[in-house]
Amino acid sequence: MNHHRRARRAITASAAAAAILGAAFAVAPAAMAGAAEDTSAPCLANPMAAATPIGSASGYTIFVTGDAILANSELEGSLAVGGTATFGDPRGLASNQYPLYHGGIGGNADYTPPTIDGEYNRLLINRFGVNPDATKVVQIKAPSGGAPVAGAKIVDRATPAGYTFGPQFGGAGTTYFPAAGTNMSAQIESEVQAWNGGAGAATFATAQASFSSYFPADEGSDLLAQTGIWRTPTIIPGGDTTVTLDPSGPNRVPLSAISGAPKFRLDGYSTTSPLIVKVAPSDVVNGVLTLPSEVNAGKNAPGNAALSYILWDLSDLTGDVTITSYNEPVRGSIYAPDAHVVFPTEAQGGREFEGQLIAGDLTVLSNGKELHTNLFKGELPCASDSTTDPGTGEPGTTGPTDPGTTEPGEPGTTDPGTTEPGEPGTTEPGEPGTTEPGEPGTTEPGTTEPGEPGTTEPGTTEPGEPGTTEEPVTDDTTTQPTAEQPAATSSDSLAITGGGLPWIAGGTAAALAAAGGILLLVSRRKRSA
Known about the structure:
The chain is α/β, with parallel strands linked by helices.
């Protein structure tokens, strides 16, 4: 009987040792795989992202958080206005129509409209305003060339007072007009939203009750205010200034660095190396900001691609800012979240615009000049990732937290050969290999003292003995450093990119040591049997 119990205990101990060995070798590759999965691409963000609706793949050509007045000839692109959108002004073009096209007439058509409520959108306004001295019919035109069909939406459909929906005058679409109005009244008509017996009215409605709920928070100012991320391009003055970008990151120059000539040529641009031109309040002279133009026209591919990597940073400007150029259109994106941007009349130097715009308020009076779409495609390191690390001075490094560190008592924290109380291999009183005073020779074969090996039947275990069901301490690779355990520094590249590897070795060694102890015990028991 006693012999069988020893045999069963030997089998149980052997199984425990095998389990520990198996766990040790199973944990290592799994942990290494987890460590590999922790690596990720650097965080990048588009400073013009506030113009892109949540869930949309692309943004608006013109994005205005406040009020907008449009009195030029047309827009080839998309428009979003968070305040009141008024079309027409006596200072602008006298035409009674204001068409919104996709593009391809005078401007670029190689873009995708934004989406609102899961549908392509050409015009999103909070409310419609009317200037009785310069009324216009806003026309949402059907696209050509296979471009997506994009319609209009109005958040506040109770203003102006007395406005309603009806069939388009002379067409199958839907119009938003004064109830007693005519085809000459100020209105928004859409060729792409069929009236269909009145069903077209619902297509102008928004699912959200507010304009702002469709858009993310504007982080452009924070992105552009970063330090330590900027590269300096090579600038060669001449009839047309040549600006060759440093490909290793985003490039930034003050406006004064490239304003010596009316035009410049941009080379070496890419998503991660765009050109940011910082505009200071001192660059605005008598309320007017004059910008040089990139040599390529916004419509002419492939040269027009350069326009999507130029951003005029007006984030330090407030109040009215009249923007013009020397001779060519104003080209590139404009970020002016706190300014009232004015494109003046042609007599005052008003030009066409080819790019993307974010503004607090907007007034476009440039008569027969058009607004065209060249969306900004550059990206900057995320503000949270570009802090300078005191250990390296390099942007984008991680802080002191090391996800691969472990708390005291976890695998990998004890040197091989040392054990904590209660762990395998420890000689606590009553455990295998321990001899209480007076034990040697005091027990007859087949008898056992309480707490000694052989007191438990197979399937039952006492705390601390081999074969117990107590769970071993497991490692958590996301454990944060504590006051008792200093955090890894930025110089610990292993801890940053593969922090799990040190404890894998320590944990495996501990498991192997435990298994070896159990196997030695089994061997001794067999010999004594």
